[in-house]
Specification:
Blueprint: H1 2-38, H2 47-81, H3 84-91, H4 98-101, H5 104-121, H6 126-131, H7 140-156, H8 161-182, E1 202-203, E2 207-208, H9 209-229, H10 233-252, H11 257-273, H12 277-303, H13 313-319, H14 324-343, H15 355-380, H16 391-394, H17 400-416, H18 420-425, H19 432-448, H20 458-487, H21 493-508, H22 519-533
Antiparallel strand pairs: 1-2
Helix pairs in contact: 1-2, 1-8, 2-7, 5-7, 5-20, 7-22, 8-9, 8-10, 9-10, 9-11, 9-12, 9-21, 10-12, 11-12, 11-15, 11-21, 12-14, 17-19, 17-20, 20-21, 20-22, 21-22
């Protein structure tokens, strides 16, 4: 009987300790979800520094508070239970228990950190590699905070959906501000403090439009997946509104990296949704809503031509397409027809079989093959003129993607000249700007009239700064995390939502930067997805529902 009482007391202590730790993490996650996206100081002048300082202060203070709480709990455990709980926790770190303690994504992200550390230690610019102060503050210090937060959230946070709903609200506010900036209302009075010819390149509480659409892409993937999987009509309506706002915001953001995020969203959704009739219906609704958003923006641009910023490139071609309205109407007719004949009453949950998914896979493969053919034809055989307005996207040269072609070419040239150890581990995190300044500064200015401190491609950036070891570990981390979330998608709707966050972010990262503005939210939601995916298995998780 005494042994039973002792066991209950021990379990009670573990439960209390877990609740205290999880509650502390929740407080700081709330700050990250609400304060970080909306915080600013001196308009866009110091937006990067403000976001960076906000993020690292939140995480550093969280680590410090958890350290104090941990020491107190260890002391109590030692006094009351002879340290049994601490010993059990530490036993999970023994090599013999690594297989149960760490999943493949955990191993990959630890390797990523080890390679970043090696890169810093062997760098000619150790101080700059650690702090990232000569780049965009994405040095070893910030990478370490990302990874530390990842393990804390995925291991010791008891999942609570209300924090993610707070993120949804802050994201909605951020998107609405961005939409008002498209109308040049400048409700925050930010644009008057920067050069007039650059005012439309910055928006909302985020800054540069490329970073803004990266952030909106994160929220778009999150909201769309939540809408697609929701069954409660009230929650479904809430997610639908937010998803629609994200569609308007990402188009009005006027950045071409939005195409990649949207492409990933619409290309990968069917692999999940086409398994049931309800899923097919949701996809039709999502696609019809997006097409409707484009049509509405076309009407807005016509009605407020003297006010709005206006669209460029592909979005401009879509809004200028004369048959857009009939297409939109046809999509909604098809959506209603599918609901009428296939999804009424109890038929919505009926499975569709394997052929819709296989058919979609075949369609994606054909599209990818066609794109590859056009790229080869346009570049190797000089057939770019055959593709009309698409030529500027298909023909790769130095001016491609607002001079991204130039810096990508020079990045590879610099990398080829590295000695073997720098090829393996790079020149140090976020030292790209130092390399380009010392090696090609004059040429950069003559060719592009600018100085590049970033490759404008996250993977190429990691190749140059962290070497082939670092970029492979980073990619492996994301691939294994996506795989784990996909396998555990039925545990909670937030799992698949976080999966699409990573997919959308990784797609646009092909032409964009990792900045401590949007990137922390990607790491935040990736960690949340892994927390939900490992619920009931990892240390610190509860089997209780939200």
């Amino acid at each position: 009987m005494d042994n039973h009482k002792t066991s209950v007391v021990k379990d009670g202590f573990a439960e209390t300790a877990s609740s205290i730790v999880s509650g502390t993490i929740s407080v700081f996650m709330l700050l990250l979800a609400v304060v970080f996206p909306l915080i600013y100081h001196n308009s866009y002048i110091d937006i990067l520094e403000t976001k960076y300082q906000c993020y690292y202060l939140i995480v550093v203070v969280l680590l410090a508070v958890l350290l104090v709480i941990g020491l107190v709990l260890v002391f109590v455990d030692w006094k009351e239970f002879q340290g049994e709980h601490a010993a059990a926790l530490l036993s999970r770190l023994k090599p013999s228990n690594w297989k149960e303690t760490f999943c493949a994504a955990d191993v990959a992200v630890l390797l990523f950190w080890v390679f970043a550390l090696i890169s810093t230690l062997q760098s000619d610019y150790r101080y700059e590699s650690f702090w990232g102060n000569e780049g965009r503050y994405s040095g070893l210090f910030l990478l370490t905070l990302y990874i530390a937060a990842y393990f804390i959230i995925s291991r010791f946070w008891r999942v609570q959906g209300w924090i993610l709903q707070a993120l949804v609200v802050s994201g909605l506010v951020m998107c609405v501000i961005g939409i008002t900036d498209y109308f040049q209302m400048d409700i925050l009075n930010f644009r008057g403090r920067i050069r007039a010819d650059q005012s439309t390149l910055f928006t909302s509480t985020v800054g540069n439009i490329n970073t803004y659409t990266a952030y909106v892409g994160i929220m778009m993937g999150f909201e769309t997946a939540l809408f697609a999987g929701e069954t409660d009509w009230k929650q479904m309506l809430w997610y639908y509104v937010n998803m629609t706002v994200c569609f308007f915001a990402i188009i009005m953001g006027c950045s071409e990296n939005a195409y990649l995020a949207l492409g990933a969203l619409f290309a990968f959704l069917p692999f999940w949704l086409f398994r049931t009739r309800r899923g097919v219906l949701r996809y039709l609704i999502i696609f019809s809503t997006f097409a409707s958003a484009i049509q509405c923006i076309d009407w807005i641009n016509q009605a407020f031509a003297d006010v709005v910023v206006g669209l460029d490139s592909v979005f401009r071609m879509l809004t200028g397409f004369g048959g857009l309205l009939p297409v939109v109407l046809l999509l909604w007719v098809a959506t209603f027809a599918f609901w009428w004949f296939c999804c009424r009453q109890d038929q919505a949950e009926q499975e569709t079989g394997v052929w819709p998914v296989r058919g979609w896979a075949a369609f994606v493969i054909v599209c990818a093959a066609a794109l590859l053919f056009m790229l080869v034809d346009a570049n190797a055989f000089g057939g770019g003129d055959r593709y009309g307005a698409l030529r500027e996207y298909l023909v790769f040269n130095d001016s491609w993607g607002t001079d991204r072609g130039y810096i990508w070419r020079k990045s590879m040239e610099l990398y080829r000249e590295f000695p073997l150890y720098h090829k393996l581990f790079g020149h140090g995190p976020d030292t790209f700007g130092i390399l380009t300044t010392y090696n090609i500064r004059t040429e950069m200015i003559e060719q592009t009239n600018r100085i590049y401190d970033n490759a404008h491609n996250a993977y190429l950036q990691y190749l140059v700064t962290l070497g082939v070891a670092g970029v492979l570990a980073y990619v492996a981390f994301h691939v294994t995390a996506l795989w784990r979330m996909m396998k555990n998608r039925l545990k909670n709707p937030y799992v698949i939502a976080c999966l699409f966050v990573v997919l959308c972010y990784d797609s646009q990262a092909l032409v964009n930067l990792d900045l401590p503005i949007a990137t922390p939210i990607m790491w935040f939601l990736l960690s949340v997805g892994m927390a939900y995916a490992g619920k009931g298995k990892a240390a610190g998780h509860s089997d209780d529902e939200e």
